[in-house]
Amino acid sequence: MSEQQTERRPAYGPGSWVKPLSGGAAGEVTARYVTATGFDYAVKGLAGVWMESSLLPAEPPSLTAVLADLSERWGVMSPAEEQAYEADRMRRERRLNLAKMAEVITDTDLERIVNDRVDTYASKVIRRFLVAAAKPDGARFCWLSGATGRGKTVAACLAIAIERGRYISAESLCLAYNAKTPEAAALREHARHCRLLVVDDVGTEKDHDAMRHALHQLVDMRQGNNRLTIITGNESRDKVRAWLDPRTLERIEHQGGIVECKGDNLRRRGAA
User: Fold this and answer.
1) Which end of the chain, N or C, is more open, meaning fewer C-beta atoms within 10 Å of its C-beta?
2) What are the Cα distances from residue 165, in Å, to 94, 216, 229?
3) What does the alpha-carbon distance between residue 16 and residue 71 come to, in Å, rounded to a whole number?
């Protein structure tokens, strides 16, 4: 046994010697983690250093003892600190997911999304949709209809921030499904397969018939791939239902629905 190994060391924790669970060299414990299956040790490998099993603790310490030891040695975060850390992590993640949305929403709206301060009818619909979509057989389509200024685009961007989705304008989608270029083909492929897709401002495209055809193909493909799709438009729910291809409408309403966002114009109130 080496001179290092004859030193008196604690049975566990920093400074103890442990035999690795599966191969490799033993080393000095630098951190300890509690897992669902028991206790794991993070070790700093020291090649050629081994220990006698008699130096290992006969029984793992209790969870209470480990947590108390961790708190004393490494300063485990308090519940308030954990909450603050998680809130900061959420803000950083949302800001990253919205990095390409500067031309779609205002800086003010972006900050409201990042800081979880969006509280509109449309945002509540989106939150309920995402909860339902988390179920294996849950909702897959959500169409936000209604006049301008009801917070539909901001609510859809909230979904992008939460789920790391992809945004495409109605006009771009229409062109992608009716053009014969490599760029259009690549955009179609991505639109078919990304986890969450937002199609914004349906009804503003130049060719409404081409848009109806594009939506039919898109909805069919995304339903088959079990992907989430949010669509926004300024027409009323009744007009949307009358305009859509019957098969497209059936798929959207079977696995989601069309919700009309009514109420005041939020842009006039500065809360869209």
Assistant:
1) N
2) 11, 20, 9
3) 18
18-to-24, 58, 132, 203 alpha-carbon distances in Å:
11, 13, 47, 66
Q: Is 216 helix (H, G, I), strand (E, B) or coil?
A: helix
- Give residue 116's identity as a one-letter amino acid code: D
Q: Token pair 């949307």 is at which residue?
A: 240
CA dihedral (200, 203, 207, 213) positive or negative: positive
Q: pTM of the full predicted structure?
A: 0.68
Fold (topology level) of 87-269: Rossmann fold (3.40.50)
Range list for CATH 3.40.50.300 in the chain: 87-269
Q: Average pLDDT of 26-30?
A: 41
Residue-wise pLDDT tens digits, 227-248: 999 999 999 999 999 999 999 9
Report how far residue 34's alpha carbon sits from residue 16's, in angstroms, rounded to the nearest whole number.
17
